[in-house]
Amino acid sequence: MYPLKTEKKEYNVAKQEYYAITKRNKKIAMADMLILGTGLLLKYFDQAEIGKHFMWLGFVLLIYIFGTNMMARNDLRKQQP
Length: 81
Hints:
Helices cover 88% and strands 0% of the residues. It has 2 helices and no strands. Helix 1 runs antiparallel to helix 2. The protein is rod-shaped.
């Protein structure tokens, strides 16, 4: 068996990091859906002031998840052999 080239090793490490980030973001996304759902329920039950804060928190988390996924994907593409 031949040793892997350094480029291939770097790509495999980047791929592992990408999978770790996406796995973490899936867990965060599940919590985010709970937060957004809570905000919607509070707005529905006339607690708009509290619900508004939950909604903003949910939107900020969505932007964070989207941004980290995009950055991880770009890093993976840069390492592609």
